[in-house]
Design brief:
The complex is a heterotrimer of chains A (420), B (579) and C (154). Chain B is of the alpha/beta class. Chain B is built from 15 helices and 26 strands. In chain B, α9 runs parallel beside α15 and α11 packs parallel to α12. Chain C has 2 domains: 56 residues; 82 residues, Glutaredoxin (3-Layer(aba) Sandwich), CATH 3.40.30. Chain C starts with 14 loop residues before the first helix and ends with a helix. The chains are: A alpha/beta (420), B alpha/beta (579), C alpha+beta (154).
């Protein structure tokens, strides 16, 4: 059983207050980084730790930080991506509501490492408590001298701004997030240029997920080797798995990267609710391809899930039991994507609606023969052709559900009703 | 000089320049890539996804749009594979299922880029279920109708309104299936901040934005197109006149023409066709018993020649509109000076010659500050106004207005100064690297101050008051006209309506006035003889615009039977006057 | 066009003013109750931005209300997890019946507006709903009843 790292302070009363946080070892990592290490050393430590982005993309964090230009005269920015909108994911909200200073500490170290002078916390508009926590934490940090001019007497200065989103899932995509911060529609930008070259307000920018930043203080204090010793070869460190759906004990579970799916569902989340049978799993939120009970032994890591045709994503495990109508579940996901499409490119904007229309038809008992093949054709027309990766995401649950549950679709069409 | 790069496209080695997109390299090398949202002169957004290509770079292959991907040395690109075409076809079918695309009765059928694409890919049925969205037509605008049922959300209109006209009226509202093109706060277009430039109309690939007057009047293979020059102000925008069977259908901007590069304003694009209410003169007219009556050319010309030939040379006067072509103006000057007439001038009044070194329109796109003196760019020379709007809105340039009047551009201005505050404008220029002074007819002493203080720093740009002011200057017709002294007057009015009330009143008192005009108004009470002549769309010749550029005017339609060309009438008169 | 210019929407007004837009819209929404034409024009004027930019941005985000809403805005999560086992649907149906309105409508007394929204990140405590700025989780129908009664009375 892994010791608690990210969730180590959860349960400590009032740890969202800086005084309590410091009393439990808080801001030691900031001290070490700013007073004992050079920015490049911090980057090397994070690189060595193997930390990969926890927002879904899994890009090596240290490498991303290293891409930032080293010129100290350039204005650089750090964005903290707290736009957690992936269905089934609730780890970032948990981290911020329970222990905001941990993330803030990580952000300060990140900003120091890349030379950012300003950081923006992009909070999802639907998280008023999260916003409150941030505002308070930032104010407290300023009060204690961990933010502002010449932090801890060094020549590193950092200002942090808390910004509220306004209800758009697509703003979790890093370039859309920057557009939203700039007061525009949250539509993704053309890449290249990449954010580390031309980002927020045209300046080099790093965008990191909340959970990713929460890992940083621990890497600094306990060393990259310790961090890398947890998890697998290519996916290191502890991970928060948000488990929900038909399990006895839904919640956030901190486990090493690479923990098998079976262990997460049965060993920690108490198994299927009411003792029913497992039918399907979405291993990393609704943007990931579906899995079935035959895949239960797959280790939950970035490199292992593609081997069974899926992806880790945010590590949000959605469990569906035998009472779930797959068609209905996929219809819900399609509606979600249709609603959140930014409207910029044709395949996503129209494709998600066509998808929803066909699935709705099937669900209503008006499905036609050939509908399933048409859905697969639609997936092929969207996948890889869209402006941003959300297009691929929209096809993942659909295509995989047809792969494993085709008879259920066919049944719906033939019998005009649900199989369950 | 940009660095040359080499890449492989469809198996062929091709060359491009550093900074080109893959699409640009394809276009430079004659490789045809289907596009819809791309438009030459507008930024690329990668929205329609039709230009997708398989791109191999540093060992990795990906699919991406060629309009947004920079071309890199050594790239291996496929744009024409069977697979890509199948993908394009699927995407096109998605477009057809999204809207309500009923080609059979659409105004753009035959003229539609979406339809062209469908033909190109052999689409004869749509595999996806049609979505049948409920979308409402906006017919509130005076000149255009917006039909969102045909809209493919390519956003060309939004980009044209922002990047070419600088007006920022159009935008995209809503999200996903509710995304739509909106004006201002989703106001009816007719009530919006639209300035009727019509750039959106010209860039729209489908029939979503259509011109009322020319709807259903002719498809692209049924019409003739003639490149000409707009004659409604001295900018001299390049136009393409679209006509069919000798009927003028529509005016479009010529994308390749200097100085406007395709943009027009309402004065040249819409008003001449929509708002012309004057009565066309079809036959020579002669005043009998206080009324103008039709007569023959012989009779009319004889009468004019008689009156001009008879009278004392000092009592003769000749006036011309400075909208006439260079050829006409030269002939006019030659004719009347030839018969000894010294009281000669322009309807628009004397024209002061601008000094030599002036900037041209394209250089306004580099200005970081505009000082507009004595000119309301919201009313006149609107295309110049668009360049100013582009600068202010898109590049952060500053606008300083020096004017007595509160012109239409004041809301856009950084400062509005009165003429006696011109020193403040000079001071503000200290912060500018490339200021431009745009001055018009009402500019007074303050202009001289600016010339002196900003010599060598600011570029000066003359808003010549009349279409062919420079032509009039060249023909020596820029002097003052003495209306009192003129008893027998010849007026070459062309199709110009603008004549001052004072001048009209004086001419009424004259003994004999012959007017060569396209329209009866406002000469009905003044004229003793009216000689019918061509309008702007029936003319041939050249004019010289405010930059000093000589531009060709070509006729799109033949004039009515008994109407003669500008120079033609003058030549007939010369014959009669025997000089 | 050069890559740097790609996708570069011409920027009217400096970036500082534009970047204040999302916050300005929230402030206007609070002041005017919802973002009607007057509210949007006010924002446009304050920030010196074109009207279309204001509308374009406001209409993109689902938390900006361009129509009047009741005193209490009830937003039931209809994300996948809350819907599994019909939890969200049952909740919505119950509220529809109790308040006598359809989804998207407001009660005649102007007290409650009922809407469905996407995932609120409360998946381990589903079904969940938001009422104005307050999140309610682990809902039973009895609880929902009590909440509505309490708010209706207040």
């Amino acid at each position: 059983m892994l010791e608690k790292v990210l969730l180590k302070n959860v349960g400590v009363r009032y740890v969202e207050r800086i005084g309590v946080y410091i009393a439990h070892g808080g801001y030691q990592a900031v001290r070490k980084a700013l007073l004992e290490l050079e920015p490049q050393e911090v980057i090397e430590m994070v690189k060595k730790s193997g930390l990969r982005g926890r927002g879904g993309a899994g890009f090596p964090t240290g490498l991303k930080w290293d891409f930032m230009p080293k010129d100290p005269n350039l204005t650089k920015y750090l964005c903290i991506n707290f736009d957690e909108g992936e269905t089934g994911t609730f780890k970032d909200r948990y981290l911020v509501e329970e222990d905001p200073h941990q993330v803030l500490e990580g952000a300060i170290i990140a900003a120091y490492a890349v030379g950012a002078s300003k950081a923006y916390i992009y909070t999802r508009g639907e998280f008023p408590l999260g916003l409150k926590r941030w505002i308070k934490a930032v104010a407290e940090a300023y009060g204690r001298g961990f933010l502002g001019e010449n932090i801890l007497g060094t020549d590193f200065s950092l200002d942090v701004y808390v910004h509220s989103g306004a209800g758009a899932y697509i703003c979790g995509e890093e370039t859309a997030l920057m557009n939203s911060l700039e007061g525009k529609r949250g539509e993704p930008r053309i890449k290249p240029p990449f954010p580390t070259q031309v980002g927020l307000f045209g300046q080099p920018t790093i965008i990191n997920n909340v959970e990713t930043l929460a890992c940083v203080p621990h890497i600094i204090l306990r060393g990259p080797e310790w961090f890398a010793s947890i998890g697998t070869e290519e996916s290191t460190g502890p991970k928060l798995f948000s488990v929900s759906g038909h399990v006895e004990k839904p919640g956030n579970y901190e486990l090493p990267m690479g923990t098998p799916l079976r262990e997460i569902i049965y060993g920690h989340a108490g198994g299927i609710k009411d003792g029913r049978k497992l039918k399907a799993i979405l291993p990393g939120g609704v943007s990931t391809p579906m899995l079935t009970p035959e895949h239960l032994d797959v280790p939950m890591a970035f490199e292992t899930l593609p081997k069974v045709g899926s992806m880790l994503g945010t590590g949000a495990v959605i469990v569906m039991d035998e009472s779930t109508c797959i068609v209905n579940a996929v219809l819900h996901m399609a509606r979600f994507f249709a609603h959140e499409s930014c409207s910029k490119c044709v395949p996503c904007r129209v494709g998600t609606h066509v998808m929803t229309k066909i699935l709705q038809r099937i669900e209503n008992g008006e499905g036609r023969e050939g509908d399933v093949d048409q859905l697969l054709d639609l997936c092929n027309s969207i996948r890889g052709k869209t402006f941003c990766p959300m297009g691929d995401a929209t096809t993942n649950p659909l295509a995989s559900s047809i792969q494993y549950f085709r008879e259920e679709y066919e049944y719906h069409i033939r019998e005009k009703r649900c199989m369950v | 000089m940009a660095e040359e790069i080499t890449l492989t496209i469809d198996g062929k080695e091709v060359k491009g320049e550093r900074g080109d997109t893959i699409l640009q390299v394809c276009q430079k090398n004659g490789i045809d890539v289907p596009t819809l949202c791309h438009f030459e002169g507008l930024s690329d957004i990668g929205s329609c996804r039709l230009c997708i290509a398989e791109i191999e770079e540093r060992g990795r292959t990906r699919i991406d749009t060629s309009c947004t991907t920079p071309a890199v040395e050594g790239m291996v690109v496929q744009v024409s594979t069977k697979q890509l075409n199948e993908m394009r076809r699927a995407i096109l079918e998605l477009l057809f299922s999204e809207g309500n695309h009923y080609c059979m009765y659409c105004v753009a059928s035959g003229d539609c880029e979406l339809q062209d694409m469908a033909y190109r890919f052999g689409i004869d049925y749509i595999r996806w279920p049609l979505l049948y969205p409920e979308r409402h037509i906006d017919a509130s605008h005076k000149y255009v109708v917006m039909d969102p049922n045909r809209c493919i959300l390519c956003r060309r209109c939004v980009r044209a309104c922002a990047e070419l006209v600088g007006n920022h009226t159009l935008g995209v509202g809503g999200r996903d299936s509710e995304a739509e093109i909106i004006a201002d706060l989703k106001l009816p277009w007719g009530e919006s901040s639209c300035v009727n430039a019509g750039a959106c109309l010209q860039v729209c690939p489908t029939g979503a934005i259509l011109d009322r007057r020319s709807a259903y009047k002719g498809k692209k293979d049924q019409v003739e197109r003639v490149k000409s020059t707009c004659l409604f102000c001295s900018v001299g925008c390049g136009t393409e006149l679209v006509s069919r069977d000798n009927y003028l259908i529509r005016v479009e901007g010529d994308w390749e023409a200097e100085p406007n590069k395709g943009i027009l304003c309402a004065a040249g694009r819409f008003e001449p066709l929509y708002d012309e209410e004057r009565t066309r003169v079809l036959r020579p007219l002669v005043k009998r018993d206080g009324r103008l009556e039709e007569t023959t050319w012989d009779e009319a010309l004889d009468l004019v020649a008689e009156k001009l030939g008879d009278s004392d040379k000092n009592a003769l006067g000749a006036l011309t509109s400075a909208r006439a072509t260079n050829e006409t103006l030269e002939l006019f000057a030659k004719l009347f000076r030839g018969i000894g007439v010294e009281n000669i001038g322009c309807l628009e009044g004397p024209i002061a010659e601008p000094p030599e070194k002036e900037i041209n329109l394209a250089e306004l796109d580099e200005a970081d500050m505009f000082i507009v003196v004595g000119e309301d760019l919201a009313e006149d020379h609107q295309v110049v106004g668009f360049f100013v709007k582009r600068g202010v809105n898109n590049r952060g340039a500053r606008l300083v207005i020096v004017d007595d009047k509160e012109t239409g551009f004041v809301p856009l201005a950084y400062r509005w100064l009165k003429p006696d505050e011109v020193e403040e404008a000079v001071r503000l220029c200290d912060a500018a690297a490339r200021p431009a002074v745009i001055y018009g007819a009402r500019a007074g002493e303050e202009l001289a101050v600016l010339r002196k203080e900003l010599a060598g720093k600011a570029g000066f740009f003359w808003m010549a008051p009349a279409t062919n002011s420079r032509g009039a200057l060249a023909a020596g017709l820029n002097g003052a006209f003495n209306a009192e002294a003129a008893q027998n007057v010849y007026v070459l009015a062309c199709d110009d309506g603008k004549v001052g009330d004072e001048l009209l009143a004086r001419l009424k008192k004259a003994n004999f006035v012959a007017v060569q005009s396209s329209y009866v108004e406002p000469w009905a009470e003044v004229a003793d003889v009216v000689l019918p002549t061509v309008i702007w769309a029936e003319k041939e010749g050249t004019i010289t615009n405010l930059e000093g550029r000589t531009l060709k005017v070509a006729k799109a339609v033949e004039p009515p039977a008994a109407v003669k060309g500008e120079a033609e009438v003058l030549k007939a008169l010369i014959g009669r006057l025997g000089s | 066009m050069l890559p740097q210019a790609l996708d570069k929407e011409p920027q009217v007004g400096d970036l500082t003013r534009r970047s204040a837009l999302l916050d300005a819209l929230y402030a206007a929404q609070k002041r005017y109750g919802y973002l009607d034409e007057e509210a949007l024009r006010h924002v446009a004027e304050q920030l010196s931005l074109p009207l279309k930019d204001i509308y374009s941005t406001a209409s993109f985000y689902s938390l900006y209300r361009t129509k009047p809403t009741g005193q209490y805005l009830i937003q039931v999560c209809e994300g996948l997890v809350c819907s599994l086992r019909g939890g969200a649907e049952r909740l919505v149906d119950y509220l529809r019946e109790k308040l006598g309105i359809e989804v998207g409508e407001t009660t005649p007394d102007g007290k409650f507006t009922l809407e469905t929204v996407q995932c609120l990140a409360a998946c381990d405590s589903s079904p969940a709903m938001r009422i104005n700025d307050e999140l309610y989780e682990n809902l039973t129908l009895k609880e929902v009843d009590a909440i509505i009664e309490m708010l209706a009375g207040g």
